[in-house]
Design brief:
575 residues, alpha/beta, 6-stranded mixed beta sheet, 21% strand
C-alpha cells in the first residue's frame, strides 16, 4: 500500500475523531507532508517509540499508542498465563497528551486480560523502573519523550528487571506491529469497567514512600550535610516536569534547609513556556535558576529533565558566573566523591566497580583504576548498563557503585535499572555540601580532579539529518566509512579502528585484526595516534548521527585544542 493509500485509509477509518479527520483533510494538497506522516510506521526499538505528535502512522497519537500496546500485549501473553498475570506498570510525564496516552495503553492491556498498575498522576521515570521490580510486574510502559522539545512524545517499554526492553522482545513487538492492522486488531476495555473489575489499579503515595525509602538508603555521609545545612543554599528546577515534588522532598529528607525552587518552572506544563528546550544540557534553560542563585548567594544549581531521569548541574565559577558541567564532568566528580565517601563511612563494597558507556569519558576509567576499582564499558543505553551490573553482581565479580553515561544519566543502588535523577540529585547535593564543608565549590573540585587525574575534554556533535533523505544519508555515511575506512583524520594517523557491529578491531599500521567483547551495534570508533578517541553513532531515536570526541592532554589547553581539531573534521561528515 502506498503512503497515499494509507492516508486515505486513515481518513476513512471510523476510529478517527472529527478533529483528527479535519487535521488530515487540511494536508490533502501537501503531498510531502502526507508522505512524511504515512510513508512507514514509527520504528519500534529497545527504547520503544518516539516522534512528533500528530495524526498519522509516523506520528505519536492514540492510534499508534494502541497499536504498539496491542503488539506488546501479545508478546507478553506469549510468555504464558502466569507471566501475563503479573501485570504491567504504566507511568507518564508532564507532556501534552501523556496522561491520555497512558490511559489508552492501560485500556489495551486490560482489554487483553493483562492487569495494569497505573500511576494516579505523573511520576519520574525511575519510579516506574522501581515499581516494576517492587511489584513483580512482567513489564512496564512509560509515556515520555524525556528531554525532547514540546512537539515530541514517546512510548518507552520495560521488562521485568526494570530495564528497557531487551532486543529480542523489542524485535518481537516490532514484528507484530508490522503484522497487525493499526485499527482492526486492537482490543480495548472501558477504563471505568477495567478499574471496577480490578484490571486497572492505581499507584500513589504508598509507592512514592517505598521509592523514597530506597533513594535515601543511598546517602553516604549525612554528617557532611549537617555541617553546612544552616548556610548552604542551592537552587533546583524541574523544567516544568515530574521532578517537581519528589526531588525537593528527597533533598529535605537529606537534611537540606535551603532548597530554592524556581517558581515559574515548578508549574507542570507540557509546553515548557520558560525554556526553548527542557534539556539540562543547555545552559540557556537555567537562566531563571541563575538569576535566583545570584539573588540568594547560592553556588550550586540542579535541574532535572521533564521525566526526571536525567539531571544537570551548574556551578559557580566566581564573580557571579555559573557554568553548566557536562555529563562527563559531573559523572567523574560523582564517581570520585562516592569512592571517598564510601571509604570514609565504611560503605565501599568488596570488588567495587564503575560502569560507563563506550562514548563516556576515559577519565572515568582513570579515576576508577587509580582508586582500585574495575571499570567496564557497555553500549550506549541504560539497559546495557543494567545488564552488565546484573551479570557482574550475580556472578560475584563485583559490586557496582555507579553506572553513568555522558548524556546526564546516572544510576545508583539496586532498586532501579534506568537513569535516576531523583537519587542522583541526592548524591550530587551531598557531594556539593561536602565540598562546601571543605571551603570548595564543585568547580574548584573539578579543577582539583584534573590536577590529580590528568586533563580531559569531550564534545558530542549532533549531525542532524531530517526527513526521508536524512535517513538515507545516515545509512550512506556509515556504509562509506566502512567501505573506505580512513587511515588519517584531521592530519593525525588512525592507530586502531573498532567496528562494534561485528566486534572487529583493526590495527591500522600492520593490518592485524582482533575481536572485542562488544558487538551488534552500528557504531564505529577510531583510536588516534595522539590518544584521542572518535566515535560515530547514528541515533536510535532521532534523525541524527552523533560524533563523540574524547580527548586528553598534558594541559587543559592541549585537550581542548584536540577537540576543536576533530570537531572540524566531524562537521565534514554531514556534507
Amino acid at each position: 500500500m502506498s503512503y497515499r493509500d494509507t492516508y486515505e485509509a486513515w481518513l476513512a477509518s471510523p476510529a478517527l475523531s472529527a478533529a483528527e479527520k479535519a487535521e488530515l483533510e487540511a494536508i490533502r494538497s501537501d503531498d510531502k507532508e502526507i508522505e512524511s506522516r504515512f510513508f512507514d510506521q514509527l520504528s519500534f526499538g529497545t527504547a520503544g517509540l518516539r516522534g512528533t505528535m500528530g495524526v498519522g502512522l509516523y506520528r505519536m497519537n492514540v492510534h499508534v499508542i494502541r497499536h504498539a500496546t496491542q503488539a506488546f500485549a501479545q508478546v507478553i501473553l506469549e510468555e504464558g498465563a502466569e507471566a501475563a498475570a503479573r501485570g504491567v506498570a504504566v507511568c507518564y510525564d508532564c507532556r501534552n497528551n501523556s496522561e491520555v496516552f497512558a490511559r489508552e495503553a492501560a485500556r489495551v492491556m486490560a482489554g487483553n486480560g493483562i492487569p495494569v498498575r497505573l500511576f494516579e498522576s505523573l511520576r519520574p521515570t525511575p519510579e516506574l523502573s522501581f515499581a516494576i521490580r517492587e511489584y513483580g510486574c512482567i513489564a512496564g510502559i512509560n509515556i515520555t519523550a524525556s528531554h525532547n522539545p514540546k512537539e515530541y512524545n514517546g512510548y518507552k517499554v520495560y521488562w521485568e528487571d526494570g530495564a528497557q526492553l531487551p532486543p529480542r522482545h523489542a524485535d518481537q513487538v516490532a514484528k507484530k506491529m508490522k503484522q497487525l492492522d493499526v485499527f482492526a486488531c486492537v482490543k480495548t476495555m472501558d477504563y471505568d469497567q477495567a478499574v471496577s473489575q480490578g484490571l486497572i489499579t492505581l499507584l500513589g503515595a504508598e509507592t512514592d514512600e517505598k521509592f523514597l525509602a530506597n533513594v535515601m538508603e543511598q546517602v553516604n555521609d549525612r554528617a557532611a550535610v549537617e555541617k553546612v545545612a544552616d548556610s548552604f543554599q542551592m537552587v533546583y528546577t524541574p523544567f516544568h516536569g515530574t521532578g517537581y515534588r519528589l526531588i525537593p522532598e528527597a533533598l529535605r529528607r537529606l537534611g537540606m534547609k535551603h532548597v530554592i525552587c524556581v517558581p515559574e518552572q515548578m508549574v507542570l506544563d507540557g509546553n515548557f513556556p520558560t525554556v526553548a528546550s527542557p534539556n539540562p544540557e543547555n545552559p540557556e534553560g537555567f537562566a531563571l535558576a541563575v538569576e535566583l542563585a545570584r539573588k540568594h548567594g547560592a553556588n550550586f544549581i540542579l535541574g532535572s529533565d521533564p521525566d526526571a531521569d536525567r539531571v544537570g548541574i551548574m556551578v559557580h565559577t566566581g564573580g557571579g558566573q555559573f557554568q553548566v558541567l557536562t555529563g562527563n564532568q559531573t559523572g567523574v566528580l560523582l564517581l570520585d566523591y562516592l569512592i571517598g565517601a564510601m571509604k570514609r563511612t565504611g560503605r565501599l563494597p568488596e570488588k567495587p566497580v564503575a560502569l560507563k558507556t563506550i562514548v563516556t569519558t576515559e577519565m572515568a576509567r582513570k579515576v576508577a583504576q587509580v582508586n582500585g576499582l574495575a571499570c567496564y564499558d557497555t553500549f550506549t543505553g541504560f539497559k546495557f548498563l543494567a545488564e552488565k551490573k546484573d551479570a557482574l553482581e550475580s556472578s560475584g565479580q563485583g559490586s557496582v557503585i555507579l553506572s553513568y553515561e555522558e548524556s546526564y544519566g546516572y544510576m545508583l543502588g539496586s532498586f532501579v535499572r534506568d537513569k535516576d535523577a531523583v537519587t542522583a540529585s541526592v548524591a550530587l547535593t551531598e557531594m556539593a555540601a561536602w565540598y562546601a564543608g571543605q571551603g570548595m565549590t564543585l568547580y574548584d573540585a573539578l579543577l582539583a580532579l584534573y590536577e590529580k587525574y590528568g586533563y580531559y575534554s569531550e564534545r558530542t556533535l549532533n549531525l542532524v539529518m531530517p526527513g526521508l533523505d536524512g535517513l538515507r544519508k545516515m545509512a550512506a555515511l556509515m556504509s562509506s566509512l566502512r567501505e573506505t575506512p580512513p587511515t588519517e583524520i584531521a592530519g593525525t594517523a588512525v592507530r586502531q579502528r573498532k567496528d562494534y557491529q561485528d566486534g572487529s578491531v583493526v590495527n591500522v599500521a600492520g593490518g592485524s585484526r582482533e575481536r572485542m567483547e562488544l558487538s551488534g551495534s552500528n557504531v564505529l570508533r577510531y583510536e588516534m595516534a595522539d590518544g584521542t578517541s572518535l566515535i560515530v553513532r547514528p541515533s536510535g531515536t532521532e534523525p541524527k548521527v552523533k560524533v563523540y570526541i574524547l580527548a586528553n592532554g598534558a594541559s587543559q589547553a592541549e585537550a581542548s585544542q584536540k577537540v576543536e581539531q576533530y570537531s572540524a573534521w566531524a562537521q565534514t561528515l554531514k556534507d
